[in-house]
Structures are given as C-alpha cells and as structure tokens.
Amino acid sequence: KMTQQMRDLQLAQARKPPGPSSPNAAKRLYRNLSGKFRVNYTSFDEGSLVGRGEKEKLRKSYLFQSNAALFEAVELQDLDRVQEMLKHYSPEELDLNTPNSEGLLPLDIAIMTNNAPIARALLQAGAKESPHFVSLESRSLHLSTLVREAEQRVNELMAQVVNEAPNADCSEKEKQLKAWEWRFRLYKRMKAGFEHARVPDAPSSVHLSVASSSSLQVTFWEPLSVNSAVVTKYKVEWSCSPTFSPLLGEAMIDKLKDLHFTIQGLVSGTAYHVRVSAYNMKGWGPPQASTPPFAIPSNWREYDGRAPRRRGQAEALDHLLGQVKTVHQHCICHEPCKNQPQSRKHSVSKSLKHLFHPGSKFLKTLKRGLYLTAIFYKDDNILVTHEDQIPVVEIDDTYSCLLMQDFLWLTKVSCMWDEILWLRQCVTVSQSSCSCILQTRFKMLLAISQMQGLLGIQDLGQVFFEPIKDKQGNILIVTLKEVKTNQTFESVRWVPICKLQTSRKSVSSPEEPTALDMLLISVQDKLAYHQRSSHALSPGLYLGYLKLCSAVDQIRVLVPEQLPNILCHVKIRSNPNISREEWEWLQKMASVEEPVPTETETDRSQNPLFQELQVAIKELMMLVNIPFQEAKDFRLYSQEVLDFGDQVSFLLLLPPSDDVCTAPGQNNPYTPRSGFLTLPLQIFELGEEK
C-alpha cells in the first residue's frame, strides 16, 4: 500500500515521529512554543549549554517541536498561529518541506482542506507540495488509504473501549479514540476537497511589456475562479508563432509573492507571443494569452543610436584627476608659502601654527566669523566633545559674509575628503586678482584638515545645502554623516540629542540665538534631510517636473522634502524601459502643437503609454498644485529619456518656456503645497550623482 511505502521511507531516513494527534495537544504544544521556545532557542550562541553535542541535540528537539506545531496549526486551520510561526522562524527551522509520517506536507493539508489564506501564507514562505503525488491517481489513492486506515483504527479502538472494563488503560484508549476520530474527519474532509476541486481557470489578465532589447516582462493576475483549489504555480510559455508551435521556451513560477516573470535572452526586433497557465492539485488550467498579443524586444537608445549619457564618465574623471596629480607632483604648489609676500606669509603661517599646535582643539563659543561643524549621528545619538559641545572649528575670523560660490566649491570638495592634503598643496595664495577667493578656500581646507585630525575621521559626510547664519555675524557650515556601526572615539563621545538640546537651552539666549543654538533647534530636520537624501527610488519609469527659480547668485530647483535628491515626480509604471514603438510615439507627439496628450485624441487611446501618461500627468499636476487645464501649455522633454542606473528612468514634464525658471521678483501663480523645498542647482546635482 502507498501509505505503508511512505511510512517505510520515512523510517528508513530516520525521520521524526508524528506530532500531537489531537487539537488539545496542539494547543498545549503551541503555547509552549509561543513562550519559552523562542527565548531558549536564541540562547544557543550564548554559551549557556555545555558541549556542542548537547547543543545540537537540543536544537534538533526544538526544531522537531516547531515542525509538529506547524502541522497541527495547519490542520486546525488556525491562520494566526501559522502566520506567527512563519514570522518568527525560517523555513529551515520549521522543516517546512519535509513530509510527516503520512507523506504529507503542510501545504498539502492546506490546499486539500481548501484553506486559501493559510495556503497563500505557506506559498509565500516557500512551501512546496509533496513530490510523492506524481499524478491525480496517486493523490486519490493516498487519500483513500489514509481515510480507510483511520476508519479502521477508529473501529478497532471503539471495540476495545466498549468491550473492556473501565480502568486506566481504557481511559487512555478513549483519548486515542477521540484523537483518531478527529484525524478521520480531517482525512475525509481532505478527500472530499480533492474530489470536489477542478482545474483552475485561466489567469484573469496577462500583461506583456518590453523590458530591454533582449527581454520581455510578463505580469499576470490570479484566476477569477480557482475551482475550490488554491493555485500553487504558474507556467509562462513563449513562441514566435501565435499558435505556439513550435514552443521556444517555458518557465515554472512557484514563488507566488510577486506574479511576474522576465523572459531573458531574446532576439532584438523579433516578435514574441506569450501565454500563462495556472496549476492546482487537479492539474493545469487553460492558458491566457497576453495583452498585447505579442511584443518586440527593443530599447529607445539602441534604436536611436545613442550611448548612455553616463557611460565612461566616472572612468574619465578618474583619469583626469590622475593627470592633474601627475602635473602637480613637481609643481611649486608643494611649497605654498615660499614665494608669498611677507604680509600674506604671516597670515598663512599663523594658521598653520594653530593647526599643528598641541593645544589645538574644538571651539566652545562663536565670535563673528566663518565656522565648520561636523554632525555624526547614530539612531538618536550624536557625537559631541568632552565638554558636551558639537565639534566646531574656525575657518576665518575676519570673514563677514559667505560667497555662494565658495560654499558651492566646498560642497564639491566633500566628494573627495581623502584628498584634502593634496588639495591644500595645490591651492596657492597669491597677489593675483583671485587671491581673496584662494585665501578663503585655502582656509576652508585647513579647517577641514583640523576637523579630520581632531576627530580622527577622514570622511566628514555630506554638506548641508545651506549655511546657518545668526544676527551676531556668525556663519556655520554643517556636514552630516550617519554612523552605521558602534564606534568609539578618543576626542568625542555619544550623547542623546534630546539631552544635548536640553542642556543648551539652559545657557542660551532665546531672544538672540547663536548659529549653534539654531543648529540644535533644527538638528532633527537636518538629520531627516540627510537620511532622505540617500533614499533610492524603486525600479520603474517616472514622470518628473522640472521647475527652477533664480536669485542673484544662484539657481534653485524644486524638489520634494521626502526625496530631495530627485525632482518632483510620480511613478508611471514599474517597467523602466522605453521601447522603440513608444519612443517613436513620443517623437511623433513632440512634433504636434499640443504634445501633452488629451482625452480627445482617440487615435492614440489604445496606446498603453498614452493611458499611463494621462494618469501620471493628472497626478503630478495635483501634486504641485497646478490646475489640470494648464497642462495644455506644458511639454514633454523629447530629446532623451533620463536613465538613473539600469532600473530607474525619467520622462520630464516642462512648464511653458517662460515659466521654466522664475526670475527674481517674478510672481509664481501656482505655489506648490507644503512638502517641497528648493535646493541650489549644484547641490541637487551632487545629491543626484550620489
């Protein structure tokens, strides 16, 4: 008999015995696991047990208990307990795909009792069906055998209970009888579920899109009806023929968390037809053809003959920097003070002496001038000096105002913190027309070196996009860096931010706050900005809105506060690729007088990209507070699709040419809602590059 063969196989492999066979036993076991099991299991690596062999023995014991508890939770159809166990333990710890003594897996029980929520939870955790059920006949025979043997066991125990006089053995047999009656009902329910089930319907929808010049992306949705049996896998097939003869390839999808698949290794310019079928325990259902019925792998860049904008740029910049270093190796820049006039030489020598003097340390108070501060944070803690001060060093005590160009130059220097010493050697202070600029920048480099030396840290992080200025004439440039690991430093220590803010309030003047007070008041906002600046977009095609505003000394760009390293945007779709056909449509649309699509353009209503853009433009207009009727004056940037890596691409929506950049004093009739800020264009470019 098949059941006996499976039991023999389990015994031969020294598998575990069956778990508790009654609901009460399952509840008791689960309660035990819910409490002490998790705590005890985590103690294996803490040296609480003596001897590696004893540790391994106890570990296996707990794994067996967790597996038995999972089986019982599935049999009892207890979704909450199943989800709890899947959350706390890995598939390996649960022994998720090892059959029990009846040759069943947890997923088998879930699908044959038609418990769709539990089956989906198990599938997402990586559960499989039993490999022993190679055909419908074998599954039917196995279930019939389980039902028959359970019924036989129930009859035997019932006869023993009826015929024997009441005693301890009789009481034990009554317990066994109840357990087997419960299991008999379970097997009958599983058998009835299997017999009632039918093959699933076709997937409700199959969407086909072009992922690249050699791949297609297939996205599909569950069948509307699974005919009383959970779908456990899907099959994707592709062919150059609409009849799918011959078949070029197929793929089985059994990881059902995300219902999509990318077909790789296709020939560019060739049309491929795709269909998808669903499978349950009764077999494969009918296939569903894709929409559109075929697709041609392509990419707009390859069709247009344009290489990616950033290809080779990093290598070219590294090569250029190497050339500059080579030129400066024997340059007079190595002796920056030798040929300086006496007045300049005295100023620079004083700065150098201050830098290397043993008493050189962080500043406690600010006196009218230009300063540099570095904020290092981890969770809710910040690095401070032993005097509980944020690390601050002086750049220039005679500097009355910060020229924007000097500040933007410093933000670029932040991309090469490791090269500060070399940069100092190359920046000369002369009597030329640029001497004031060079003096300021040389002092900036000296201050950076001093900060690095006092902290013992080279990388000072990212420069905040605007300096802090107070009424006393102080200007504070702020750098921000998150520390991921638990590091200790000699000259600084970790302090909770709230504690530092509280102590600072007690000594500061609320009427005339200094730049340091202003920094502490807004430190959480600056840390939030820094963290958001490192966030990345999920893969996809986006519609971005380019809006600039100019001032006397800079141009600023509108960005969302939640993602300040990216333009204001909405997501068009998850597929970042623009195909040849879509690119041709964009070029055609750019040639008409009103290129932004409107609903009256019925000749394009069947274009998926057209429909996606319609939705995205409405959403973007609402986001930036612009009436949708104004969209007729906006245009899509049609010169290229902006690629940010391989997985993110942008189409740009541009305002009318007169409104792309708002001039100083010019009124902007449409003010964006809260949640936006404007960054200096150069700062935005640096953040986007990172």
TrEMBL record:
<feature type="domain" description="Fibronectin type-III">
    <location>
        <begin position="202"/>
        <end position="299"/>
    </location>
</feature>
<dbReference type="InterPro" id="IPR036116">
    <property type="entry name" value="FN3_sf"/>
</dbReference>
<protein>
    <submittedName>
        <fullName>ANKF1 protein</fullName>
    </submittedName>
</protein>
<dbReference type="Pfam" id="PF00041">
    <property type="entry name" value="fn3"/>
</dbReference>
<dbReference type="GO" id="GO:0000132">
    <property type="term" value="P:establishment of mitotic spindle orientation"/>
</dbReference>
<dbReference type="GO" id="GO:0005819">
    <property type="term" value="C:spindle"/>
</dbReference>
<dbReference type="InterPro" id="IPR039269">
    <property type="entry name" value="ANKFN1"/>
</dbReference>
<dbReference type="GO" id="GO:0061172">
    <property type="term" value="P:regulation of establishment of bipolar cell polarity"/>
</dbReference>
<dbReference type="InterPro" id="IPR013783">
    <property type="entry name" value="Ig-like_fold"/>
</dbReference>
<dbReference type="InterPro" id="IPR003961">
    <property type="entry name" value="FN3_dom"/>
</dbReference>
<dbReference type="InterPro" id="IPR036770">
    <property type="entry name" value="Ankyrin_rpt-contain_sf"/>
</dbReference>
<feature type="region of interest" description="Disordered">
    <location>
        <begin position="1"/>
        <end position="25"/>
    </location>
</feature>
